[in-house]
Amino acid sequence: MTVPAGVDGLTPQWLTDALGAEVAEVRAERIAADSGFSSLLYRLHLTGAERLPATVIAKLPAESEARGAMDLLGGYRRELNFYRDVAGRAPMATPRVYTARIVDGTADFVLLLEDLGQWDNADHLAGLSMDRARTAVAALAGLHAWSLDPTNSAVVEGFPSIDTPVARDLLVPAFGPGWQVYLDRSGTAVPSEVAAFAERFGEYAPRALAALSERSMLLHGDIRADNMFFYGDRLKVVDFQFASVGAGAADIAYLVSQGLPSEARHGHDQALLREYLGHLANHGVDDYSFDEAWRHYRYAAAYLLVLPVITLNGWDGMPERSRSLCLTLTDRAVATIAEIDALEVFG
Fold first, then answer.
1. Global model pTM greater than 0.70
2. Cα Rg, the chain, nearest whole Å
């Protein structure tokens, strides 16, 4: 099958071949325009064969400069690899995958996924409830434990380390300008020790990345609330463009430090990490001590401040909600770093 250059290429004939059922008509509706930074998302309304789903979600590469950045990071290929090789095998539930294709050597790809429109998409700006955070912690433990099974090592080796030259050379240098945007646009007072850390982020980040690569678990890498869909106590997770290999506590730190409102998270970091380690042990992984995981957690809480901060570099072209989201996530991360004394691990 070919990979369409854009949404106009998702014709009835192409979709018929992709879905294995005749599509007579298709209508594309753009969705998530104010929250998707690196891809284009469409809900496709289909008519045709009786066994055809009424709707599917199509994911295509961005048309902005984000496309180039994701190409450098290998983000599109990571996601395709996850949906093709991990989804449906690991305990972490994802939408059903109808097709996942990419043109070798390019950023041209297409994903057709189950439409989770009847599920509740968590609101990253509002943040997760504690119950939902605990559900996500359990799911992450399942993924991490699955990735340590020797029978899955070949799949895991297809994903890059969390510590890559691209992360050091692309993400870290973008922190400084983004941090200045945060200081200019946020009314939140930054604790002096966090401000000093941010000023020297480029010096500290490589140490954090080295520590977070001491373990070889498959990480989601971007476990944001808006990448989670809930139906009662069930969870399905999407968006694997930052999937990488590293210390499992990095996923937990990102989930808790930025996904939970500060007032909900306050005082619960260690308890949630212990709960995660308990889930790992239930999956047969019992060699990740609390002291080691807590060290990784604190490194990750500090380093992963980079993700909302570098996004602020696109301030002028960002929708208002996206601006509020990045400022809020940075606020939450700063509060966590200060509260858990994360910077102590840097010595």
1. yes
2. 20
Residue 178: which of 329, 74, 345, 73 has the closest Cα? 329
Mean pLDDT of the chain: 95
pLDDT band at 310 (very low <50, low <70, confident <90, very high): very high
Tokens of 222: 């971007």
* pLDDT class of 51 with cuts at 50, 70, 90: very high
Contact 15, 24 (CB under 8 A): no
CA angle 221, 226, 229 (to 5 degrees): 100
d(CA 223, CA 258): 9
Using an 8 Å Cβ cutoff, are 191 and 338 in contact? yes
- Return phi, psi of residue 254, to 5°: -65, -45
Predicted confidence (pLDDT) at residue 35 exceeds the cutoff of 70:
no
Dihedral sign of CA atoms 205, 210, 211, 216 in order? positive
3-state secondary structure the chain: CCCCCCHHHCCHHHHHHHHCCCEEEEEEEEECCCCCCCEEEEEEEEEECCCCCCEEEEEEECCCCHHHHHHHHCHHHHHHHHHHHCCCCCCCCCCCEEEEEECCCCCCEEEEEECCCCCEECCCCCCCCHHHHHHHHHHHHHHHHHHHCHHHHHHHCCCCECCCHHHHHHHHHHHHHHHHHHHHHCCCCCCHHHHHHHHCHHHHHHHHHHHHCCCCEEECCCCCHHHEEEECCEEEECCCCCCEEECCHHHHHHHHHHHCCHHHHCCCHHHHHHHHHHHHHHCCCCCCCHHHHHHHHHHHHHHCCHHHHHHHHHHHHCCHHHHHHHHHHHHHHHHHHHHCCHHHHHC
Distances in whole angstroms, Cα of residue 273 to Cα of each of 134, 215, 260: 10, 16, 14
* Separation between Cα atoms, residue 88 and residue 335, nearest integer Å: 36
